[in-house]
Amino acid sequence: MTTLGTGLVRARRWLRGHPLVFDAALALAVLACMICASFAEPNPGHGPIFGVRTPEPSSVLLMVLGAGALVLRRRDPMAVLAVTGLLSAAEFTLMDPPAPVVMSAVIALFTVASRTDRPTTWRVGLLTMAVLTVAAMVVGSTPWYSQENLSVFAWTGMAAAAGDAVRSRRAFIDAIRERAERAERTREEEARRRVAEERLRIARDLHDVVAHHIALVNVQAGVAAHVMDKRPDQAKEALAHVREASRSALRELRTTVGLLRQSGDPAAPTEPAPGLAVLGELVDTFRNAGLPVEVACTDRDSPLPAAVDLAAYRIIQEALTNVRKHAGADAKAEVSVVRVGSTAEITVLDNGRGAPRPADDGTNPYEERDGGGHGLIGMRERVTALGGTLTAGPRYGGGFRVHAILPVMTRTGEPEKPGTADSTGGRA
User: How far apart are CA 248 and CA 225, in angstroms?
Assistant: First the structure.
């Protein structure tokens, strides 16, 4: 049974790839049926009787022409229907009793109905039924209500209905296939979009971690090199801060890269993502690096959502890193985190003067000297992803200000959007 089923499937695929061969075989089968039926004499009492009559040569010619026209039924179904209809009407008019040339017209009508729309099927089907039925009833010697005449009406009507049903089924299957393909494309696009978003998020985290800790390591290493000979105790302290900063950087990098592990890999670190709960430790690293930082944080007992908490931590981390790198040696920083209704406001201020470039280079004096920083870009992306706002720029009278407003209350899984993130001026 399996071999037979496989053979049928292969034969069907081959015939679909060679429609002209299938139509030629169908035409031969229809011709054989018409010739066999032309030898039969209908007998209402005991069924048809074969061998009583013989078809005329003209009837045989009309049957051959009608069957031959079916070979081209896919290329021009309307023309084939017109030819077979005229041949059937001519057979009804010229011969008594007529040969069943109308079989070819029935197949042609089915083809038209299966390959056109429903209004066309109705118009063409009614016209064909009327012409052939009237020709059979009016011209023939049998009564108009005879079984042969009514069968012409029935067969043409069933051909039109069957063709329309086949067309509807094909349209339904094509619609299902199109929806499935569109759904597959949508899933692939959604998967690619999520992968891109995850890569961007991980890139932001890596940038924040590396920029912060490497800046601190650089500063402490410079201090250690400067005082190594004259004040070794202070140099040892600076090197201890370097070791602590590097250890913290490695720990956060392991946590971030752990998100990229696949199933079967060693277990990723289970340490929680950094947030405002460890803000004191973050500020201490900057104080140890020589940057005075004052912190004002309200509503410590009301934790923020995880995404907002991490974004607030990263914004403060990046802003203080920029202060340490660009604000100058005597700069001071202020950090405030305030809950205002359904939002959290994060502000980082400094009084530094920075190290401006020459005035004629057309650049912002607070930008990173190599022009390749991505700190403010990363902060804007974090805030925008949460539906918040970000403003960053020089303060009047000197210094720099970073101010972020993050929504705390969520609605239907999406943060409330008080506005869009923007930036004026900026350090990188």
Answer: 22
pTM of the model: 0.46
Max alpha carbon distance in the chain (Å)? 132
| Of residues 80, 103, 83, 99, the one with CA closest to residue 91 | 99
Q: Which residue has the tokens 């985190």?
A: 337
Q: The tokens 């410590």 sit on which residue?
A: 300
The length of the chain, given as a count of residues: 428
Q: How many helices (H) and strands (E) does the chain have?
A: 11, 9
Structure tokens at 279: 């803000």
Can you tell me the distance from the alpha carbon of 110 to that of 71, in angstroms, rounded to the nearest whole number?
Answer: 14
**Residues whose CB is less than 8 angstroms from the CB of residue 46 and which lie 6 or more positions away in sequence, other chains included:** none
CA 338 vs CA 20, 205, 347: distances in Å: 79, 23, 9
Backbone angles phi, psi at 138, to 5 degrees: -85, -45
Is the CA virtual torsion 183, 187, 192, 193 positive or negative?
A: positive
* pLDDT, tens only, 160-213: 899 999 999 988 998 898 888 888 888 878 877 887 777 777 777 776 666 666
> Which element (helix H / strand E) includes 333?
strand 333-340
Q: Give the DSSP per-residue string, 13-38.
A: HHHHH-HHHHHHHHHHHHHHHHHHHH
The kind and range of the H/E element at 293 are strand 293-297
Non-local (6+) Cβ contacts of 131 within 8 A are: 85, 89
Which pair of tokens denotes residue 33? 């049926």
Which sign, positive or negative, has the C-alpha torsion 415, 422, 306, 258?
positive
pLDDT in tens, 23-69: 888 889 888 888 888 877 665 555 566 656 677 888 888 889 988 88
Q: In whole angstroms, what is the distance from residue 394 CA to residue 322 CA?
A: 13
